[in-house]
Design a protein that fits this description.
The protein is α+β, with helices and mostly antiparallel strands and 527 residues long. The protein is 13% helix and 31% strand. The chain contains seven helices and 34 strands. The strands form eight sheets. It has a seven-stranded mixed barrel. The radius of gyration is 25 Å and the shape is globular.
Length: 527
Amino acid sequence: MRFLSVNADCFLIELASLDETLALYSKLQDTQIKGIKDLIPAAKTILVFFNEIETSFYHLMPLIRSLEAGTSLVRSVQEVIIPIRYDGEDLEQVAELQGLSVADLILKHSQSTWNVAFIGFAPGFAYMSSPDQPFTDIPRLKVPRKKIPAGSLGLAGQYSGIYPKDSPGGWQLIGTTSKKMWDLERENPALLLPGMNVHFEDVTRHPVSVNVPKQIVAVEEKRSSPVFKITAPGLQMLIQDEGRFNQTNIGVGTAGAMDKSSMHIANRIVGNPADTAAIEVLNGGLKAQIQSPAVIAVAGALSKIHVKFVDGQQADYESYQAIALDEGDEFQVLTPTAGLRNYLAVRGGLDVKPVLKSCSFDTLALLGPKPLSIGDVVYHGQLNVSDISLHEVAKTDLPKVGDTVELDIVMGPRTDWFDQQSIEVLCQQSWLVTNESNRVGLRLAGETSLVRKMTQELESEGTCIGALQVPPSGQPVLFMNDHPLTGGYPVIASVAKHHWDVVAQIPAGCHIRFKKIKEFEDIGQGL
């Protein structure tokens, strides 16, 4: 059992096998050690998140070692039967790789028992392993497909997996199912959960049933009064709050406001609780007409708010102040002069329906209230409000295009997968933030690529916000709020938590320099 540093509030436990990993994960769930907030199990690792106020890495480590989980695991008695039509486009190729006929491949796959090991990649995507070990390792495609249809059954390594939605992917496809892996209308959206037993039923020769769509009866929603209607869009307008917590067991990440401190400030300015959902606006541009009296505030990136009053008068307001508007008034959040993301708060909050206990939209998982667009109407919330805060201060250190931003990093968990020169290059050279950056992550480009000294494939393992994952190109990707829960490329370091809000405000065209504030820690077995 190894303990590897990740960030101030999380660390990675590495174990010798999947069985050991699942046994320890089960033990940690049953024991419920004080201070542990969340766990992300993967093939041979568990990513542990903890409350820094209640505990620490050095306090938790001996407690976890003492559990002596071994490899024994009492699995859930719950079994799921999934009908499969073995008609995948890689079926013959996989059979040839295994030295089997197509018929024998189907027989071995359908007659094996499969266990849900962990959830990752996407909400509801279950990594299923078999104690029968019916196949040798199956390689991923050299060139991943850009789109794999929902319900496709794929194989990779020793795992089977069913894609819960249309998405890119590199697994070898051997079949399809009509079962929904992910359905928000179910009490448990994910059909498969860690610990379940799965059996695949071969229905290839059965008649194809035609699903008749249910007649949908429109139900009129009772809404509060409208606050404004969007008349011109920004590049991206998303409703965000603190984020989605404790949903990793079904493959759902945190999402939430990229720059939480700015969201908090905007809410305090209008008298809302700091964690109230607000609108995250990318690079300004949002224009709206007020439908009923409202008090708004814009924080985050430095932008002026242009107001055209119903009587024809016009004015430009600075951000970081409350603006009272009446019916018929129009306002527009202008392009920022510094920073990238604005946060627009409305006094009383927004009338938004939570999804999995959060009003945040996750751009990777496509969960939450849909992104706002031209013509959409935003409605008043019903929150209890307090006095407007008059003492909020605008951020003065926001980056502009061309600036170089210094970010603190914690080394690990896979620093030792890189040669010493690359570890030094990470902090010695500046990294350009490219245009291929979004809420999933910032794609960086440096003159010198990072080089791995360990070239074997890394089995999927949990990742955190701020992770610097290094794909084969050697050019890092800085994971942000909507990143996938697990990844198959090594993470050399992670941006420290106190700089996440800064990352949210870095526009493409800036450069980043990394400053090491904590060395890589690898505390191995028996230490």
